[in-house]
UniProtKB/TrEMBL annotation:
Major site of localization recorded for this protein: membrane
Gene3D superfamilies to which the protein is assigned, alphabetical: Biosynthetic peptidoglycan transglycosylase-like, DD-peptidase/beta-lactamase superfamily
Name of a matching Pfam family: Transpeptidase
Residue ranges crossing the lipid bilayer per the database entry: 18-41
Keyword Metal-binding attached: no
EC number of this enzyme: 2.4.-.-
Species this chain originates from: Bacillus salitolerans
Protein name as catalogued: Transglycosylase domain-containing protein
Subcellular location, record wording: Cell membrane
Catalytic EC class: transferase
Superkingdom per UniProt: Bacteria
GO function terms (MF aspect): glycosyltransferase activity
Amino acid sequence: MEIITNQRFRQTLKYIRALFFISLIMSIFFMMGWVSVLIYAKIQGPPPLAVPQSTVYYSADGQVIGESSQGQTRYWVELQEISPDLINATISIEDRRFFEHNGFDYKRIAGAAIADIKAMAKVQGASTISQQYARNLFLEHDKTWKRKVLEALYTLRLEINYSKEQILEGYLNTIYYGHGAYGIEAAANFYFNKQAKDLTLSEATMLAGIPKGPSSYSPLTNFEQAKLRQKLILQSMVQNKLLSSEEAAIAEAVPLSFYAKFDNKHQDIAPYFQDAVKQVLRSLTTITDRTIQMGGLKVYTTLDPKVQQIVEEKIASTIDPKSEIQAAVMVTDPSTGHVKALVGGRDYSISQFNRATQAKRQPGSTFKPFLYYSAIEQGFTPSTQLRSEYTTFRFGEKEELTYSPSNFNDYYANDTITLAQAIALSDNVFAVKTHLSLGQQALIDTSRRIGISGKLPEVPSLALGTSTVKMIDMVNAYGILANGGKRIEPTFIQKIVNHHGEIIYENKVHKEQILDKDAAFVTTHMMTGMFDEKLNDYTKVTGRTIKDKLTRVYAGKSGTTSTDSWMIGYSPNLVTGVWIGYDRDHTLDLAAEKRYAKTIWADIMEEALKEEPVQAFKPTSGVVGVYVNPHNGLLATEACPVARLTYYLRGSEPDEYCTDHLPHQYNNEGPPIQIDIVPEDEGWIDKLMKWISP
């Protein structure tokens, strides 16, 4: 019996030794595995904490004008910008030992396992805030062993490489609070129309309960369950000595009022402009579509909300609301190219097609300033004379083709007129004669230099704007004339800041002198003539209908085709282009429709500049201003009934005096010497131009 007992003892001892060594080996392997996991987590380095966030768009004055959401609204706020009550409530209910564990709460895991075994079902969770953040940030929410392993690895990487405060900040900015609100800032905005830092204790404890089950604990869909969850959170805060029982009772009893919507009123600001901004963003190769939509970018644009509002109001108040006619307007700063306002159609909710940046339409006579700039550059002057009469032009290699342009209402001078008159009266015959005399390539070359894209064929009618163009190109080209011939590009974005606050793009204005500054000024001054009735001849200047609206010097040109009505013009610091027409090539038959563009343009310019000091176009050093008889372009005398201050490239100004109105004996003896003539009917344009001329 004693022998059997000894054998059993030795055998038991043998098992104990085997078990000890097996346990030791397993412990060593476990430790090696754990160390390996830690080393792996350290080698992998810190995982990126960037999460999908709404991209926000700002106007030039810092006002929020829009944001991207795709049904999800996300913002990122720093931990110190979150209510302490919300932080305490979240930690108390989700992970009260958050600041003590290393990412895994083993005591809680054991308790959850025992509870599950007793209930024979999954009844209690044990995920820490770090684990939940890892799951939300990097992983799908499928319930597989692979996902659990990856979750553990990501959790370790978070804990090893980031502070508890950074993890908590990331978690609170990532967690889902229901109704499309991701992160506590979006939730505070949606539920209570306030920022996360301003949440009260009652509001904070209500929100802290939602992430457990947004569909079950949203106070908007299940208020009773939400209140029970809030009560549980308040009790846990009392147990964790974060609140007194009295404070918890008061917070539970406070009635809550829910806002239940995102404050997206800014989404209605300049939708066509916002679309153009997003198109520019896509052209920046370093920014992907996903980053644009949910990268948490802050996009600072060039939009001036005041000018944008003026544009929208003038369109709405001018055009018959019952009309189906469309409109497009673009306003820029000629010194920088900054787009200050943009309208691509009358109703964005009906049509998102942007007629300012996408449509190609015939510009009509608004194309003529580019022709006359080319003419000035090649030796024409404002006094150059050509006959205005019905003419049939022959062109082609063998002159086998013919073209017979007509003036508005078939009016012709049947006499000579000056170049200054031709642009003010919009004489088509004069324009085609000029185009052909320069050589048709001259207008094409100038148009390309100033950024006109699209097909520009060598045909006589190109001088009359028969090739289709984009408004954005036309307005920018006028801006180049306005700034003295410097190349600029239409600019919608000033800078882009990523979710870390780093500037990842900043627009820098690059200016290059591409036109002769003196010829550009002479062209600009000729374009002021459309508002000056001293240039009236066989017909009246094209800007006469809006002249009385204007209180300062403008340069501009209108243009009309059977389907399009344009007005583009500028002051020294503002360019505005207006297009009116139908989308489906309907003709403009009503007289009122043909007046819309000029009226809207004049009203926008005057309203946008009313608080600005009056500025005139400053003559360049290479030009000289003299008074001429506008009907023949010769130097005016005291006998001339009309005299107009006109600018020329220095050395090209006329040197002959007008003798048409002198007594007969002076005609025989030659013109008298004329010094500093000031005509009695001198207009405000002449007075201002004379005042600033050297």
